[in-house]
Design brief:
With about 325 residues, this protein is mainly beta. It has helices at about 10-15, 65-70, and strands at about 1-5, 20-25, 30-35, 40-45, 55, 75, 85, 90, 95, 105, 120-125, 130-140, 150-160, 165-170, 175, 180-185, 185, 200-205, 205-210, 220-225, 235, 250-255, 265-270, 275-280, 285-290, 300-305, 315, 320-330. It has a nine-stranded antiparallel sheet, with no helix packed on it. Strands 1-2-3-4-5 form a five-stranded antiparallel sheet, with no helix packed on it. β13 (about 150-160) and β14 form a beta hairpin. The longest helix is centred in the first third of the chain and has 7 residues, at about 10-15.
Length: about 325
C-alpha cells in the first residue's frame, strides 16, 4: 500500500492555481488518482479477470475540459446534489437562494459548487492492507447562497480486497442544507473500449420517480416492475433505452429493496468480468447513463444521495455523514 502526492503541472497551468494529484495504490493492481481541484477522481484502475488493470472511469478526451467540466465528470458534488427548483431552500422561515444554473433549477450546487473548488490535502494513513487520504474544504456562509460556515472532509480508503470507501463529513455553525454525492461515471470495459449498453445492472428497489419537464422528481414513487427501468433482476442497461429519454436519468429509492441480503447496486461487464457492488447509507440513487451526444452511453453514474428538490436539513453542530462503499471483483 502506498500514497504519492505530486503537482499536476498541466492542470495547474490551465486553472492558474496549484492542483495536486494524489495517487493511492493497493497490492492487487488497483490504484486511483485524486485531484485537489473539485475533489475529482481522475483515474480508477481496476484489474479484469486476467489481472490486467485499466481505468474504469469515463474521462474527457481533452484535459482542458476539466476546467469547465460541463458534465461534472468524476467530481464531488455539493452543497446540493441534483436539481433544486428555483435554487431555494427555506430554513426557520428564511428563504436562501442559490445559483440557478440549469433552466429553473440549481443543479449540483451551481456553477461554482464543490466541483469547482480547491480542496486541501489533509493527510494520509497507511495500514498493512489499506491506505486512506483526506481532503478538506471550508464553505463560507452564503458564499454560494447556501447558509452555514461548514467544515467539509472527504475521506478515500482503498483496501487490498479492491474495496473503495468514500466518506463525506460536514459540520456547520448553523442549520443548513447539505446533500453531497460523488459523480463518478463508470465503464467496466476498461479505458472506454465498449459502450455500457450490454453491461448488466441490478438495482435493489421496487420504486423510482418520474421527472417533470425540468428534470425534477415527481410524486408519488412509481413501481419499477415491467417498466423500462426495471432492474430488480440483472438486465442489460440498453433495456432502459426503450423509454422516452433513451436512457436513465432517474432517482431510485433504496429504502424499498427487493432483496434485503443484496447491496443497493450491482453492475457487471460480461466481457472483462469486472463487477461493482455499491452500498451506501443514503436513501436514494440517481442513475444517469450519459444520454447526451458527447460520449453517449460510454459511462454510467450512480449518485448516492438524499432525494433531490427537497431540504436536507443538517442542524448546527450535528455531523453530516455520507458513506458509500464500492466493491470491485473480477471473476
Amino acid at each position: 500500500m502506498r500514497v504519492e502526492i505530486n503537482k499536476h503541472e498541466e492542470l495547474s497551468v490551465l486553472l492558474e492555481k496549484r492542483v495536486d494529484c494524489i495517487s493511492l495504490f493497493n497490492n492487487q493492481g488497483m490504484s486511483m488518482k485524486l485531484l485537489t481541484h473539485g475533489c475529482l477522481m481522475l483515474e480508477l484502475n481496476v484489474p479484469d479477470q486476467s489481472g490486467f488493470s485499466e481505468n474504469v472511469l469515463m474521462t474527457y478526451d481533452e484535459l482542458t475540459k476539466f476546467v469547465d467540466n460541463p458534465i461534472y465528470l468524476n467530481t464531488t458534488i455539493g452543497l446540493n446534489a441534483g436539481r433544486l427548483k428555483g435554487g431555494e431552500v427555506t430554513i426557520d422561515g428564511k428563504v436562501y437562494k442559490s445559483d440557478v444554473n440549469e433552466g429553473v433549477c440549481n443543479l449540483h450546487g451551481g456553477k461554482d459548487g464543490l466541483h469547482q473548488k480547491t480542496w486541501q490535502y489533509a493527510g494520509e494513513v497507511l495500514g498493512s492492507d489499506w491506505c486512506s487520504v483526506s481532503l478538506k474544504y471550508f464553505h463560507e456562509h452564503l458564499s454560494d447562497g447556501f447558509p452555514g460556515n461548514i467544515e467539509i472532509e472527504a475521506v478515500f480508503k482503498l483496501t487490498d480486497d479492491n474495496q473503495l470507501t468514500v466518506q463525506y463529513f460536514a459540520r456547520s455553525d448553523r442549520d443548513c442544507h447539505i446533500n453531497l454525492t460523488s459523480h463518478y461515471y463508470f465503464n467496466l470495459s476498461g479505458n472506454e473500449k465498449n459502450k455500457i449498453d450490454e453491461h448488466l445492472l441490478f438495482v435493489n428497489t421496487q420504486y423510482y420517480k418520474e421527472l417533470d419537464q425540468n428534470g425534477l422528481p415527481l410524486e408519488p414513487k412509481i413501481q419499477t416492475k415491467n417498466s423500462a427501468l426495471d432492474f430488480a433482476q440483472f438486465a442489460p442497461i440498453e433495456n432502459s433505452y426503450r423509454n422516452k429519454i433513451k436512457g436513465i436519468d432517474h432517482p431510485f429509492s433504496l429504502e424499498d429493496p427487493v432483496d434485503h441480503t443484496k447491496p443497493g447496486i450491482i453492475y457487471r461487464d460480461p466481457v472483462s468480468k469486472r463487477s461493482l457492488s455499491i452500498q451506501s447509507n443514503q436513501p436514494s440513487v440517481v442513475i444517469y447513463t450519459n444520454n447526451i451526444a458527447y460520449k453517449n452511453h460510454l459511462g454510467i453514474c450512480f449518485e448516492m444521495q438524499q432525494f433531490s428538490n427537497q431540504l436536507n436539513l443538517v442542524e448546527a453542530g450535528i455531523e453530516y455523514v455520507h458513506e458509500t462503499i464500492y466493491q470491485f471483483n473480477a471473476k
